[in-house]
Amino acid sequence: MHARFTFISIAAFLISCNVACTLTPEVPSASPASLNVSSAAVNDIACPTPPSGLTVAFPNLIPEGIEFDPIQCRFLLSSLSMGVIVAVEDDGSFTTLVDDPGVSSIAGLHLDDRRILACLSLADGRPGFGIYDADDGSPLAMFDLSGLAGQGGSLINDCTVDADGNAFITDSMAGAIYRITPIGEASVFLAAPELAGATVGANGIEFIPDDEVLVVGNTNAGALFRIPLDDPQAFTQVQIDATINTDGMLLHPSGDLVITGSATIPGAESITGLISVGSSDGWMSASVVGTVATSARPTTSALRGTDIYPVFPFLIESFTGTMVTQFPVLRVPVTAAN
Prior knowledge:
CATH topology: Neuraminidase
Number of helices: 2
Helix content: under 10%
Strand content: over 45%
CATH architecture: 6 Propeller
Shape: globular
CATH class: Mainly Beta
Structural class: mainly beta
């Protein structure tokens, strides 16, 4: 059997350890108040005026992933400690949309029309990938990815979808990206040492439709990679004058990538929070357009209209025995840089 790193061991630790205290965090602050992006963008949605932030009072949820559903006008949050996805209203009230007994942990989410794509660990610890109905949470498909992961560890982390409906999934420990076709055929799309990391390698990923490429961030390496869909072996590192340790990633209507994580930029202080990155040459190179530092560490963000909503799962606190009782989501509006 090959070794696996799974979130089920973390969840078991949280349940079995002697919890010394609980934590009820306040909504983290953001400075400055808005994130610069390359250009003005319009992304109208038929939802109420967005809240400045909200808090989900679900003890031990540990929501690593977040998406916004513009049809139901609600946020979707995953859980690293259990096989659930919760639907959250603007006032913080929630319902459990998905409660899958065959799943122990859910990380990154991607909303593809009326389907929720979920990066997960199966109940026995095997790496997996699930698809659920976005309206009622019913399961649509489940994939066991252990046959693709090889003999090393596996950490299924984030996903995206191209224009043809192919899903692309990062495995942060295997240094690989998997592809699942619309008819359910799973394969290794790309495996390379450049996508591996000592703890977390390939992580946030997005499809850029104008260029027919994937952009993926390697967390440990602090690098971004451009991967052509028609020739993944021709991948290149995005040339950028910054070290960006990517966790989550989303494609903003401005054309920028908004990265949740941390960054070191020459001539500026290192920040943890949001980093907007733009490109004018099809992501052969890129530049940092704007940053927002947050007082706590977010993992991923959701797009609501043109605003960004990072989620704060308090991973270190949760994984070291503190029972976190509430999880904040913060609104970060955007401003066109020119």
